[in-house]
Amino acid sequence: MAAIPQGFGDFSSSDSDLNGGYSDLNSYSSHYAGTLGDDSDASGEMEDSMPTMEEMSIDDSLTPVERMLKYARSDLVLHRLFVAKDIVDTLRSSLQDSNMDSILQVVGDLMADPEPLIRQAILQQAAPLAKVAFAHPQLPNPRAAVVELLRLSSALLPDSIESVRQVAQTAFLSILELGALLPSDIETLVCPVLLRLATDDLEDENRMNAITLMSKSTPFVSRSVVERIFLPQICILSEDAMFRVRKSCACAIGPISLAIGTKLTVDRLLPKYIRMCSDKIWGVRKGCAESLPDIAQVATPEIRETALVGILESFATDVSRWVRSSAFQFLGPFIATFANTAECVEYPVPPPELREQHGLDAPSTDESSEAEVNATAMTLGGVTIDESADDAASSSRTTEDETPASPPPVVASPTAASVFTIASPAKPVSEMNKVEDFNAFNFWRAPIPAFEIDAALLSPAKPSPAKSAAAPAPAPAAPATTAPATAAPIATTTPASTASPAPAVSATPVPAKEVELPYKLLEFYIQMAEPSSTRSIDNDIGFHCAYSLPAVVLILGASKWRLVRDTFLTLSRDLQWKVRRSLAHSLHELAAIIGPELTETDLRPVFDVFLKDLDEVRVGVVKHFADFLTHLAPEARAQYLSMLEELKKTENTQNWRFRRLLAKQLDKLSQLFSAHEVKKHISPVTLALAADDVASVRGVAHRSLAFMVNRLLQEGATSSTTGSIAALASDLSNHVIEQFACGPSFVSRMNYVQICQHFVEVVAPEAFTTRFLPSLLSLANDRVANVRLSLARLITQTLLVRDYFVALSTSDAVFQSTLQQLRTDRDRDVAYYANLAPGSDSTNPLVLEIQAEEADDLLDGVA
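Given the sequence above, the corresponding structure tokens read:
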């Protein structure tokens, strides 16, 4: 017999081994059962500790103040949360000094609650509490209550929970916005809080919060406070060792500069700003790019046209695509600041290729101009720009900036990476900066030469003629994307008093007061519309370009529209509908700038295409339909009358807001055409929208119809062709009465009452009494109670508040009998409104309709 293998011998072990295995399983089962037993006991204890429904309920028999005092110190979080949410209503219900003291005591206790949810909830009510307390004169000292609420809110600014800190910031700024604090309160309460946060060396979040609060509170404090307290702290924190703090400073430097004015911005903030523009962290440079328009708004023209233009160029060619994206995003607002330039005497001439493209004469070049282009160094407004390190600086750039990058150079042209930096201070800001001396990044990158800021740049005073004559003439190279390196140089716009002789620069003289734009900025702006050049940075670059187009055209003027005409056409063909939508909303503004002739040739074809585009694009055209037609010749306007019926049609039949926008344009359109054209083309569309299924559309159409009828009535009474226009007015009035007052549906008859309500506001009382009042009073016999109720409200709340109709109610028998019939109507609601005192109904349907329209206008603006 063959021997059993060793492994099988082990497998056929004794029963004792098997029993041992089962015993282990039994012990595990008993342990598992014991664990279940323990859990069941724990769950039982938890159920015993949970509050019952009776314990969680709120006693409604108590007064609001008693209920607040009882549950503010409850052990249940739900009770304290209820008190925090209900504390504003508690204050409204009992506006007394003693109650205010109790409420402030409860607010202080809840703000010290250990639960973050409670602290956040009471902070959300701090600003409404301050608003209610300050608005009610019943309180003996409402300002003291506001000051106490501000003090309590500021105590949570350094809270350990981020959500609580954010709500505390919102409450702090909202209370400041009330304007209830005196200058002494700002000095003794607000400033110490911000200084404590700004000087906290342990928590970076506190310093960042201090910077944010300083920048956002500048509209609510005096300029003296900003100059004495905020400005020194911003200057100190701009050199902080933590990049997040420097990033906050970069974002806050814009509002601070707007608050302190030109001199302090140039003397103190500009050096810090330029230093941060060369920061190694891309987030800091991105914040500087976002603040550039605010800095440019208060800077002198010399600095704006030299140093700040160079800074923007460096951002547009930065190694980080996030910085480049911000540079292009804020390029339009930066260009808009050039409208502040008081005097400009030269306009930069485009390179030959661009001039040929737009039909302009090419400038002449000579040997001296080529020498200026090939210069390796030049001075712009006292700032020396060295171009000797172009190749080395450009070779060190990478395509991404996920890690801290090298300081971005401020270049003189988009193609040459000319370096512009500030000399480092003799003493480092902190010991942490010494680590950067041993960073390997400093040994393989190209060396960056340091330059000192010329005092002439930082001084708002104009340099002397001797210095201007001695300085080399600026000759930045033309961008390579449009012209070769040998193209004629482009002169930047400079004021007449500081422009230095530049014989090599060919420029077109313009009137001294005309606002001009440096061509470098225009070149960058034109690049934004090209998908191949900038869409790799950010897909929204085209949208920002379209959004800023009216401002750029306004600065250029109609005479230089051809420089951006191709950009406009490129944007109009963009594949992204939001780009075309932004352009559609601004066509009427462009038409007002460039004039009727260019509007007819360049804008009108795009306008026609947008009328057939997606609803998201069409809405911009329809919203300003009449405004655009204003800038067309009368013959061209008439061609759009036949398109009104098509404009009512949308891709989505539920898109009633589109019809509402069209209804708002009908009144303006009726002012652009003759009475015959209004009756033939515009009135049918108005009558159709007046019977729309959506009440908001009907309300707007009713108002437009009232203005339209009033215009025909007035022209029929004053025009030389009285007979024909009067016949048109009579025909339209009869059509309104036939369609609505005599309509088969009770909804149509109710619409007639609403139309008459607008007629009373617009049409002369005599004309209304003659044409519309008889058919209106006949609705008192309508079989539908809602129609009679609408009529009763119209008579008591609209007609009888006017002296003309009050006199008519006592002299006209039909009016008297109708009013008496409504007062004794079998429907009690009709009788109630018919017996109301004139003008006593707070729910006037016309007022409610206007409020609803205002709310819809806000929604349309958001959409």
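The CA atoms of residues 429 and 461 lie 31 Å apart. Try to locate this feature in the token string yourself.
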